[in-house]
Amino acid sequence: MNSLQCQITAEQLRAVYRQLPTIVSAVAGAGMLVFILRDVHSSALLFSWLAIVLLNCLAAVLLYLYYIKVGRDSISQPCWKTYFFIFTLCTGTIWGSIGMLFYFAPTEYKLLIVVWIWAMGAGMVALLVAYRPAFYAMLIPLFMPLMFCLATDEYGFYRGLSVATFMWLLSLMYFYHGNHKTFTEAISLRFINAELAEDLARKNKEAENANLAKSQFLAAASHDLRQPLHAQSLFLAELDHYVDNLKGRRILGGLESSVYAMRKLLNAILDISKLDAGTISPSIEVFSISTIFANLRSEFENLAAEKNIILRMRECYLVVTTDPVLLERMLRNLIANAVRYTSEGKVLVGCRRHKHHVSIQIMDTGIGIPDEKQEDIFTPFIQLGNPERDREKGLGLGLSIVQRTADLLGLTLSLKSTPGKGTVVSIDVPLSNQMPVKRQNDLPATDEANINGKCVLIIDDDSDVRIAMSGLLESWGCLPLAFSDMQDALEYIKLEYINQKKVNIDVIFSDFTLSGNGNGIQVIAELRALCGSTIPAALITGDTSVERLQEAKDSNHLIIHKPVLADELRAVLNRLVG
Predict the structure, then answer these.
(1) In the chain, which end has fewer C-beta atoms inside a 10 angstrom radius, N or C?
(2) What is the dihedral of CA 234, 235, 237, 243, to 10 degrees?
(3) Do the beta carbons of residue 524 and residue 537 sit within 8 Å?
(4) Which of 398, 430, 462 is the last residue of a domain?
(5) What residues form the membrane-spanning segments (predicted)?
(6) Which residues contact 32 (CB under 8 A, 6 or more apart)?
(7) Could you give the CA distance from residue 447 to residue 575 in angstroms, rounded to a whole number?
(8) Which tens digit of pLDDT belongs to each residue from 321-356?
(9) How much is the average pLDDT of 569-575?
């Protein structure tokens, strides 16, 4: 017997055992029958039969209590089949005996016995629908004595009634088979559905684990790659001051281009990690779409002209409510995709107003997307039309970031595409009836006078990063102090800058993930406590794991993600000391 069949049989037995208490009601029926037959049969016979019915009911109660105590967990054992089969066989025999013990009576009493047994048989169809052996163990001994007496009666009417009783028995068996099949199929479907649900849950768990493993791998790989790339970016920024000849500038430009491409990939991975981690908090504002369109138009006009395609961005002065920075990033990815995959024709960006929202649409005459692939394009690293993985055609992360950002902002993202004709992507953004808020830049313009002579404390366990960052800061006129861990920094400050009062520390740049037990948050707290002032500080991290990103965000420190471009580092430094 296979596992499913065992489960079905166990459930059938549970169903019939739960019906056992209803047998107790048979006492009332037996008492009524004895009362009716009191004038045609001896009291000894009637009360003897009634006593047997009472013992049968007592057996039902004891069997039910035994099932409640030990049978629920062991119902699959064969003994429970045997117990119930014997019980129903005895019950059928006891009640079937009335067809012989009480048969010899006036006609109206005989007919009462016939109707009584017929009704009991009909009741067994529903009561024992779950377990077929019990049904037959009950039904056959219930009907056989009566049919025998009717068939052997000297009157033809009763012999005819025996045939009718036999036909009734067959009809009950027929109806029972249909009901039993339906009941069994219902149980089977329930177990199959439960098994499918468990299998689905298991596969979902496996998929979640695989996705988590992928995220952990990407986070680890991203962190390990960001460290040397961060140092390389800073070295190149410092080297830029010393390369003057044309050939050297060309080589330096190639190196910077390669670093930029790698940085673009790592930052895309970082964006996905931050969206997964929930560390991006939308800054909802009221603004005009025209401000975003102006930025995007100047950014993509030359790129479209280089490909000999037309880029049209229709003016739109509608006012909307959402995060302008994240919306602009979404549109930038979508327009870049449209331009990238359109070799001829045009790309049109415009707005369609509705009652409560505006649909920002990006339409192109590019290669289009087949129906069966339209869901795949929002999966990370999936690119259509780029089997050679040409870096110039993107990284396969842009649309995934767009989808996750839309989910974060609660915006509706839709796509319609026809292969060979083009694609239309729409983002539905809520309209606003308020006046737009003037946006301000996050970072002030660089002012070299602000940072000249400033003492910058650097803590990073990567020696290349310390050297590169110190050299770049020196080239800007700063006084860098670089240490590999918190302990070295604290000891040095105690000896040189606290006791002797030489120089005040103006800014702290600390790596978030340090060797040992400490991290950048603890470093900044310790240094501030030691110096007795709230020194401006920033965390510089290459970690993209969900937990680390959330921990860094919760610290409320300014966070810079490796690799950092020189201009970005200088702008942050100016902001901290300004």
Answers:
(1) N
(2) 180
(3) yes
(4) 430
(5) 20-38, 44-68, 80-105, 111-129, 134-151, 157-176
(6) none
(7) 10
(8) 998 888 988 898 889 888 888 888 899 999 999 988
(9) 87
Q: Is 284 helix (H, G, I), strand (E, B) or coil?
A: coil
For residues 427 and 449, is the Cβ–Cβ distance under 8 A? Answer: no
In this structure, the answer to whether residues 257 and 344 fall within a common structural domain is: no
For residue 344, the enclosing domain spans 285-430
**Token pair for residue 318?**
């509608």
Long-range contacts of 421-424 (CB under 8 A, 24+ apart): 421/365, 421/368, 422/342, 422/345, 422/363, 422/364, 422/365, 422/366, 422/368, 423/338, 423/363, 423/364, 423/366, 423/368, 423/369, 424/361, 424/362, 424/363
pLDDT band at 113 (very low <50, low <70, confident <90, very high): very high
Domain boundary among 101, 118, 152: 152
Beta bridge partners of residue 424, listed in sequence order: 363, 416
Considering the domain architecture, whether residues 309 and 398 belong to the same structural domain is answered as yes
- 341 neighbors 366 (Cβ within 8 angstroms): yes
Classified as helix, coil or strand, 448 is helix
* Judgement on whether residues 110 and 95 belong to the same structural domain of the protein: yes
Please, is 534 exposed, middle or buried when counting C-beta atoms within 10 Å of its C-beta (0-12, 13-18, 19+)?
exposed
Q: Say which CATH number the domain at 547 has.
A: 3.40.50.2300
- Cβ(23)–Cβ(56) under 8 Å? yes
Q: Check whether residue 291 and residue 244 sit in a common domain.
A: no
Question: Is the separation of the CB atoms in 306 and 338 below 8 Å?
Answer: no
Task: Tell whether 245 and 339 lie within a shared domain.
Answer: no
Give me the number of domains the chain comprises. Answer: 3
Q: Do 246 and 129 lie in a common domain?
A: no
pTM of the model: 0.45
DSSP characters for 178-233?
Answer: HHHHHHHHHHHHHHHHHHHHHHHHHHHHHHHHHHHHHHHHHHHHHHHHHHHHHHHH
Rounded to 5°, the CA angle 423-425-429 comes to 165
Query: Structure tokens of 521?
Result: 């948050």
pLDDT-derived band at 71, boundaries 50, 70, 90: low
Written as six digits, the tokens of 165 are: 């009783």
Contacts of 476 (CB under 8 A, 6+ apart): 448, 451, 452, 570
The pLDDT value recorded for residue 392 is: 47
Q: Alpha carbon of 300 to those of 316, 331, 338, 348: distances in Å?
A: 17, 11, 11, 12
Tell me: the pLDDT tens digits for 146-191?
A: 999 999 998 999 999 999 999 999 999 999 999 988 888 888 888 8
Decide: helix, strand or coil at residue 365.
Answer: coil
Q: Are residues 380 and 261 in the same domain?
A: no
Is the four-CA dihedral 138, 139, 141, 142 of positive or negative sign? positive
Residue 129 is encoded by which pair of tokens?
């629908």
Looking at the structure, tell me whether residues 266 and 329 fall in a common domain.
no
Going by the DSSP 8-state scheme, the letter that residue 503 receives in this structure is -
- Stretch 242-266: mean pLDDT: 74
**In whole angstroms, what is the distance from residue 399 CA to residue 414 CA?**
12
Q: Provide the token pair at 77.
A: 């054992």
Helix, strand or coil, per DSSP, at residue 78: helix
Two tokens, residue 139 = 């039904």
Contact 241, 214 (CB under 8 A): no
